[in-house]
């Protein structure tokens, strides 16, 4: 079985309250390294057999039409989990 990863992030101009909350919590944990946090979504899609080009195309289509809200989110990656980005 193959797996396809789809990553979705809020558009830069969209407020990200979850990311802001995480950013505020980091210093309380003694972590001062990061200046900003944005929280997105990750989907894992499973296919029978190895990941084909058609499966990647279908995943990209699903990402744009079902897995993300194109008004407020960008699909930032669609890739074969075994091959990496």
From TrEMBL:
Q: What is its EC number?
A: 6.3.5.3
**Localisation:** Cytoplasm
Q: Which reaction does it catalyse?
A: N(2)-formyl-N(1)-(5-phospho-beta-D-ribosyl)glycinamide + L-glutamine + ATP + H2O = 2-formamido-N(1)-(5-O-phospho-beta-D-ribosyl)acetamidine + L-glutamate + ADP + phosphate + H(+)
A molecular function (GO) term: ATP binding
Can you name a GO cellular component term?
cytoplasm
Quick one: which pathway? Purine metabolism; IMP biosynthesis via de novo pathway; 5-amino-1-(5-phospho-D-ribosyl)imidazole from N(2)-formyl-N(1)-(5-phospho-D-ribosyl)glycinamide: step 1/2
One Pfam entry for this protein is: PurS
Q: Which InterPro entries match?
A: PurS, PurS-like_sf
Keywords annotated in UniProt? ATP-binding, Cytoplasm, Ligase, Nucleotide-binding, Purine biosynthesis
Offer one example of a GO biological process linked to this entry.
'de novo' IMP biosynthetic process
| Physiological role | Part of the phosphoribosylformylglycinamidine synthase complex involved in the purines biosynthetic pathway. Catalyzes the ATP-dependent conversion of formylglycinamide ribonucleotide (FGAR) and glutamine to yield formylglycinamidine ribonucleotide (FGAM) and glutamate. The FGAM synthase complex is composed of three subunits. PurQ produces an ammonia molecule by converting glutamine to glutamate. PurL transfers the ammonia molecule to FGAR to form FGAM in an ATP-dependent manner.
Per UniProt, subunit arrangement is:
Part of the FGAM synthase complex composed of 1 PurL, 1 PurQ and 2 PurS subunits.
Q: Which family does the similarity line name?
A: Belongs to the PurS family.
Identification of the protein by name: Phosphoribosylformylglycinamidine synthase subunit PurS
Q: Which organism is it from?
A: Ancrocorticia populi
The gene name reads: purS
């Amino acid at each position: 079985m193959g797996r396809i990863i789809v990553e979705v992030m809020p558009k830069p101009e969209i407020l990200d309250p979850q990311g802001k909350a995480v950013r505020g919590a980091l210093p309380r944990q003694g972590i001062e390294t990061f200046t900003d946090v944005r929280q997105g979504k990750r989907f894992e899609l499973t296919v029978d057999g190895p990941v084909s080009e058609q499966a990647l195309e279908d995943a990209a289509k699903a990402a744009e039409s079902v897995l993300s809200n194109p008004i407020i989110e960008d699909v930032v990656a669609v890739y074969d989990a075994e091959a990496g980005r």
